[in-house]
Design a protein that fits this description.
The protein is mainly α. The protein has a single domain, classed as Rhopdopsin 7-helix transmembrane proteins (Up-down Bundle), CATH 1.20.1070. The protein starts with a helix and ends with a helix.
């Protein structure tokens, strides 16, 4: 059995797992808590079903892939913003500082994405596929960069991640990092397109399993050892609030 067989096998597995994830989100009414994540899960499921159905027809697949990737990346960025709001919802002052920093990081990452686009030179002559890959690379730089910012900023202030929020971000981080590596590092190595596609499919299955696991897991109650961290975080929040109102 060749790589093509395994790619389609994991693609089907991803579709099954996606269907299960969407069902869980619907049954648990998670779309109320994570509307963008629910929209992402449903949209990618529909998009992947369409792509799988037309995968034997190159032109139709390219159109479906471009539309699907555009929606998926846009919704992924919206999910990161959604996580950001929930992460700082209980700490208004920290949220203001984080939001200002978040916007600065967004601008810097977008500029970095533009640099990536410029570094590839004119893409018109390289065809639609090459253009899509370049745009995806720039978008993944922004996505993975924002996820890293969330982890670093929350770690700096000792923010406690709720399990479901952590699971959402972890899944995107794992999948986004592999996709970014696939469009930047891998093309300059001996790795073939088939191996890359298989790696992406396997990683996507892992990401969906992470989302399913954290969605099904009950929220863990705060333990005594976390209380000092919470108190310290509140002191940070009050100090920043006082500074803002001075």
């Amino acid at each position: 059995m060749g790589l093509s067989h395994w790619i389609y096998t994991f693609w089907l597995a991803a579709l099954v797992l996606q269907t299960f994830l969407v069902a869980i989100l619907a049954l648990r009414k998670m779309w109320r808590k994570f509307p963008f994540f629910a929209a992402y899960a449903f949209t990618t499921l529909v998009g992947d079903v369409v792509e799988y159905s037309v995968s034997k027809h190159r032109d139709a697949y390219l159109v479906a892939y471009m539309i699907g990737e555009t929606l998926a990346i846009a919704l992924a960025l919206a999910v990161i913003y959604e996580v950001f709001k929930q992460l700082f919802s209980a700490h208004a002052a920290l949220g203001k500082v984080a939001w200002l920093t978040f916007r600065v990081v967004c601008v810097l990452l977008v500029l970095l994405g533009i640099v990536v686009l410029y570094a590839h030179g004119p893409i018109g002559a390289k065809g639609i596929v090459a253009a899509v890959v370049v745009v995806e690379e720039a978008s993944r730089v922004v996505e993975v960069g924002l996820i890293m910012f969330l982890f670093l900023f929350s770690s700096a202030f000792g923010l406690r991640w709720r399990q479901q929020i952590f699971g959402v971000v972890l899944g995107f981080g794992v999948y986004g990092a592999i996709r970014l590596a696939g469009t930047t590092v891998v093309p300059h190595t001996f790795v073939t397109a088939g191996v890359l596609n298989l790696s992406v499919m396997v990683t996507y299955c892992v990401a969906i399993l992470i989302w399913i696991g954290y969605t099904l897991a009950p929220e863990r109650a705060a333990v005594a050892i976390e209380l000092p961290k919470t108190a310290q975080l509140e002191r940070w929040n009050r100090a920043i609030m006082e500074l803002i109102h001075q």
